[in-house]
Structures are given as structure tokens and as C-alpha cells.
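sanity check this:
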Amino acid sequence: MSDSQDHCRTGWVSLAAFAVVLTFAVPAVPAASVQTRTGRCNVLQSQLSEEVKDRAGSMNSATAAAMGARAKRLCASGKPAQGLRLYAKALQLLGIQPIEPK
């Protein structure tokens, strides 16, 4: 075997070893920490539901509840980005900051 072939094979072995080390060196991101838009819809739906219940009878609670119902339909119909924006607007109407994802 020539010197250049030996050098090339050594390079591939080193690259493969590096790939194995890199696989174990990079920490895995737990699935629970990565939140999907659907999961985010559920979080904001729960937050809005609690806030509307706490503020039942207030000036904006009926409007926020109606916005929440529409946001829920948007999230369920495959339009979670629109639903999330509407949940955020409904919460802001009540003077509440939406829960931020972790």
C-alpha cells in the first residue's frame, strides 16, 4: 500500500472516531423541553381559561372567552400560529402576559 493510501485511510478512521465522540459529547435535548405549537396552544388555552374564570363578569372577560374559543378552533384546524397570536391577544386584553415557553 502506498503512503498516500495509508494516509487517506488514517484520515477516514480519525473522522469516524471523531463522529463517535461527537455523538456522545453533545447533550441530548429532552423532548419535554422542546414545545410544539400544539403544546403551546394547550398551555395558553389553559392559562386563558383560568384567567377568564378568575375574572368572570369583568368588562373584557366575555370578549377574551370568545377570542379563546376562536383560537382553540384555529389550533385544532391546523393553524396553530394564528391561534397562538389570538390567545396572546385575548390574554393581553385581560392585562395578562402569556406564559413563555421553557
In short: Residues 15-34 have pLDDT under 50 and may be disordered. Helices lie at 3-25, 37-54, 61-76, 80-93. Residues 32-93 form one domain.
